[in-house]
Specification:
The complex is a heterodimer of chains A (324) and B (382).
Chain A: H1 4-12, H2 17-38, H3 48-58, H4 69-88, H5 103-124, H6 128-159, H7 164-173, H8 177-180, H9 182-195, H10 207-210, H11 220-245, H12 258-286, H13 292-320
Chain B: E1 3-8, E2 20-26, E3 29-36, H1 44-49, H2 53-61, H3 68-83, H4 89-117, H5 121-142, E4 151-152, E5 155-156, H6 162-188, H7 190-196, H8 204-209, H9 214-219, H10 226-229, H11 250-273, E6 291-299, E7 302-310, E8 316-322, H12 324-336, H13 344-350, H14 355-358, H15 368-372
Antiparallel strand pairs in B: 1-2, 2-3, 4-5, 6-7, 7-8
Helix pairs in contact in B: 2-3, 3-4, 4-5, 4-11, 4-13, 5-6, 6-11
The chains are: A mainly alpha (324), B alpha+beta (382).
Chain lengths: 324, 382
């Protein structure tokens, strides 16, 4: 991957940005389709998410009165850029060529940016629903982010590395970390569901309470970009969890051919991310939205405690060298 | 956050009907609430006074898009009582069947809406799908899905053929199965329970004090149902129970309504199986003697009251409709104070508000009362 042209192709086309956008459309389609089938509906046709994006991109951009335009325009772009960057460090067809020690931390922080952008958008919108939604988004961030981070850095304790790609490689020789750290895996899934603001954690955009929360005043390309950022974050988040807990696209054996390995790894990646999507979509279809104060109690009392318990368990396992 | 004013309505995704709450919230907690009704003045009462009984009925039916049969039954029941007409038993049974089917589809609709308000859209889709079976039955029987126009002064418009009865009876077991599933779901669905339990609490004394009616009152342990306490139609002859609950919150109201679904289904089945023979209507005089009557009816949302005054002509001199939603509003305002903002939709939805039906009542003396912003409870504007 030393070839700069190849690297550019990796970043821009596959499995970089272009693939990310395409896959996020497929992701959204499947997500909506699964939930629709659960609800006894037909669901959207395959190209619907793409059509939605194209349509909203072409729509008029309406500025709320007195809005700070440069920041209002920039926030969705920053959110999307952060997610796109995060995706580059997540293994898709094998270890990421950009991997370095500590990229896990970078990915986690980059995935936090969309929420902050959303808070900013809500605050700038000069709309009471958006402001309340923005405050809710950032309040929720404080609740789920701690256990989510704890859950995702726990593999580093066991694998002894801060790189997503190396954690993935570690699982080739050992068991999946989802097996070794089941509590962390579940917490990571809960955290991802909350990060993506999906039911039961769609508190910041609760339609029946605050219209669309921070999204209320978003129109045209701002809405399209923010939506794309959210969908891409779903892909990046699923891919991250797949890599860290489910062994990602790493093959347990090598066929000898680099191309075959890449294809097999990619298929594994698809299978694992779609499996995670299935879980996320099922949860979305099967739950009601909980209240912020209830989430506060659940998050700090139970989820964070469980995460800390998992840390203790992992430390004990390390001492006894279980799974090593 | 400091105190903010969150306007909810008259256009808002939570409430599809025109009502306005000015919610003054301290962060997420509601500290003050201003309720503003009366956005849609339709003048239906006044219009009904201009028409003779035959032509007033279809109009009265359109007071509400869900309890349409309730309004016509309350109206024709009142007129029949003034006329001193005895409605044949077969007509009474058919009216009861339609009334209970209406209650079922209304309660299923409510369950879906309540689920939607807490973001549980799957249940919303399911109940609205099952509701279709009831509406199909109603369409088979009356020809219409919403405004059945089944009532006439003196009886009902259409008879039920044995084939229709059979078709309706075939649908009931499927519905029974679904209702059983909902009973289980309401007890087991954890996220829904967290949103329903302890929300919108109304004690028995408060329910009585605020004059709550229907499932809202019964969920607070008020054992009161017009169908039993002031029997009309065939309710005195059918075996059934009043469903009450002691929880007093949204959860309790859900349990009452789901319990009533089961009761209604049993009533429909009993009526279909024991449908008496005979005529479906009697001929009535064109005019009604002078008189006043308070016609009470247990609509799906609670006690519905029609005040009717006749003056010896073929039309009413005065009709005043008090919908159950109006009786329940004050309890809602009471329930909301001190609650988080997120509870507004579900607490409001818990009384199953029907706003355009309620909004008929407007300020009559536009002078000092209108200026002070306190709407007096009068209905002379129709």
């Amino acid at each position: 991957m030393a070839d700069p042209l190849l690297l550019a192709a990796y970043i821009l086309i596959f499995p970089g940005f272009l693939f990310l956008f395409a896959y996020s459309m497929v992701f959204e389609f499947l997500d909506r389709r699964i939930v629709a089938r659960m609800q006894n509906r037909v669901g959207p046709p395959f190209f619907q998410p793409f059509a939605d994006i194209v349509k909203t991109l072409g729509k008029e951009v309406i500025d709320p009165e007195g809005v700070d335009r440069p920041i209002f325009d920039a926030a969705p772009i920053v959110a999307l850029a952060a997610v796109m960057t995060a995706f580059l460090y997540v293994p898709v067809i094998g270890a990421s060529p950009l991997a370095f020690q500590g990229d896990l931390v970078l990915v986690l922080y980059l995935l936090t940016l969309p929420t902050l952008a959303l808070m900013l958008l809500g605050w700038l919108s000069r709309n009471i629903y958006a402001a309340v939604g923005g405050v809710r988004a950032v309040t929720m961030l404080f609740i789920y982010e701690v256990p989510f981070f704890l859950a995702l850095v726990m593999p580093t304790l066991m694998a002894g590395t801060w790189s997503v790609s190396e954690i993935m490689a570690w699982q080739k020789e050992h068991l999946w970390l989802a097996v070794l750290q089941p509590i962390a895996f579940v917490i990571a899934l809960i955290g991802l569901q909350a990060k993506l603001e999906r039911t039961p954690f769609d508190i910041p955009e609760a339609e029946t309470e605050i219209v669309a929360g921070p999204w209320t005043e978003l129109t045209g390309r701002r809405l399209a970009l923010m939506h794309l950022a959210n969908q891409s974050a779903a892909v990046a988040g699923s891919a991250l969890i797949a890599a860290v807990f489910l062994g990602g696209p790493a093959l347990p054996w090598a066929s000898g051919s680099a191309v075959l390995d890449a294809i097999a790894g990619f298929l594994l990646f698809l299978a694992k991310t779609l499996a995670i999507l299935l879980i996320l979509a099922t949860v979305r279809g099967a739950t009601a939205r909980i209240r912020l104060d209830q989430l506060n109690v659940i998050g700090w009392k139970y989820i964070t405690t469980a995460a800390l318990a998992q840390v203790a368990i992992v430390l004990v396992m390390n001492a006894w060298e279980v799974g090593a | 956050m400091t105190r903010v004013v969150v306007p909810i309505g008259p256009q808002h995704p939570a409430l599809k009907e025109p009502v306005n709450f000015r919610v003054i919230a301290d962060g997420e907690r509601i500290v003050e609430l201003e309720l503003n009704l009366s956005y849609s003045h339709r003048g239906i009462e006044k219009a009904a006074e201009q028409r003779d009984f035959i032509r007033a009925l279809p109009l009265i039916e359109r007071v509400c898009g869900i309890c349409s049969h309730s309004h016509t039954t309350a109206f024709s029941k009142g007129i029949e009582e003034i006329m001193g007409v005895e409605v044949p038993p077969r007509a009474q049974y058919i009216r009861t069947i339609i009334a209970e089917l209406e209650r079922m589809h209304s309660h299923l609709l409510w369950l879906g809406v309540a689920a939607h308000e807490v973001g549980f859209n799957t249940l919303f889709m399911w109940t609205w799908r099952d509701r279709e079976a009831i509406q199909d039955t109603l369409e088979e029987m009356t020809g219409n899905r919403v405004h059945y126009i089944m009532n006439e002064v003196g009886g009902v418009r259409l008879d039920l053929s044995p084939l229709q009865v059979e078709a309706a009876l075939v649908r009931l077991p499927v519905l029974e199965e679904r209702i059983r599933a909902y009973v289980e779901m309401v007890e087991a669905e954890e996220t829904m329970l967290t949103r329903f339990r302890g929300v919108g609490c109304l004690s028995r004394d408060e329910a009585l004090c605020f004059g709550a009616v229907g499932p809202t009152a019964r969920a607070s342990g008020v054992d009161y149902d017009v169908r039993r306490d002031d029997p009309y139609l065939a309710y005195a002859e059918i075996p059934w129970n009043v469903v009450t609950d002691t929880n007093g919150d949204v959860y309790g109201r859900t349990r009452v309504r789901i319990g009533e679904l089961g009761e209604s289904l049993a009533m429909v089945r009993y009526c279909l199986e024991h449908l008496p023979d005979g005529p479906i209507r009697v001929s009535v005089p064109k005019t009604a003697p002078p008189g006043e009557i308070l016609s009470r009816y247990e609509a799906p949302r609670g006690e519905l009251v029609h005040f009717i005054r006749t003056n010896g002509t073929d039309r009413v001199e005065r009709i005043d409709i008090r919908t159950p939603t109006l009786a329940n509003w004050t309890s809602v305002a009471h329930c909301l104070i001190g609650r988080p903002l997120a509870d507004v939709p579900v607490i409001v939805a818990a009384i199953d508000p029907c706003l355009s039906c309620t909004s008929r009542i407007t300020v009559s003396n536009r002078g000092e009362d209108a200026a002070s912003g306190t709407p007096p409870r009068t209905g002379w504007e129709g």
